[in-house]
User: Which sequence fits this backbone?
């Protein structure tokens, strides 16, 4: 079972920051998941459309300019203030040994986003196969497929769907990413029968890691990915 860092190593550094991502890139894990919002002609990493939780500001993203957002502190790591990064900054990091899972939050112009990825990934020598693009907005996944079918896509859900993984498979997604609170053996088996890999979020308890491994889950998203990977390696030994 593979391990992804959830919003970077968000259990040790402010989520979706360069510090959290760089911590993850030092670990022997599969990849790193981050959240992406469009802002002006740029893309920024943040999970919520309100800044209340991450920055202590009672403002929405659309009430601030890109310059203001990039100057917004979102916590500290090792006594260094962390700020909201751009996706371009993140793509300049060393991704040679890791996948990058981009969870799309609000992307009003998908063609612009795809062109942006081509430009910045080419400059950073990041192969398309290193990207996993996921979203709860399944229309975005369909748009991605129409514009750039070569990208791997992950169908995100927090619900136990009546048709299980049928819609994700019908759309041609490769991953079925589901909340730990609703996943079970039946839905994992259904996804596998349809040719989908299953990833589960958010997993930080050892008992959950054991159970998910037993029911055949392919990957987990963890706030403490180093600890999760070490625990799984110890069980393998």
Assistant:
């Amino acid at each position: 079972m593979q391990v992804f860092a959830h919003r970077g190593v968000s259990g040790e550094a402010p989520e979706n920051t360069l510090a959290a991502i760089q911590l993850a890139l030092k670990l022997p894990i599969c990849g790193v998941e981050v959240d992406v919002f469009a802002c002006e002609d740029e893309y920024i990493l943040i999970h919520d459309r309100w800044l209340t939780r991450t920055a202590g500001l009672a403002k929405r993203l659309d009430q601030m300019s890109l310059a203001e957002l990039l100057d917004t502190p979102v916590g500290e790591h090792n006594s260094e203030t962390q700020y909201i990064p751009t996706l371009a900054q993140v793509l300049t990091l060393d991704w040679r040994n890791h996948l990058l899972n981009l969870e799309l939050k609000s992307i009003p112009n998908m063609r612009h986003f795809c062109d942006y990825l081509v430009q910045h990934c080419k400059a950073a020598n990041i192969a398309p196969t290193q990207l996993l693009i996921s979203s709860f907005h399944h229309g975005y996944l369909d748009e991605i497929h129409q514009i750039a079918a070569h990208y791997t896509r992950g169908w995100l859900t927090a619900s136990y769907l009546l048709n299980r993984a049928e819609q994700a498979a019908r759309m041609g997604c490769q991953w079925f990413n589901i909340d730990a609170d609703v996943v079970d053996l039946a839905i994992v088996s259904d996804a596998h029968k349809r040719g989908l890999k299953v990833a589960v979020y958010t997993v930080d308890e050892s008992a959950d890691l054991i159970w998910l491994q037993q029911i055949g889950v392919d990957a987990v998203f963890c706030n403490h990915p180093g600890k999760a990977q070490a625990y799984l390696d110890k069980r393998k030994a």
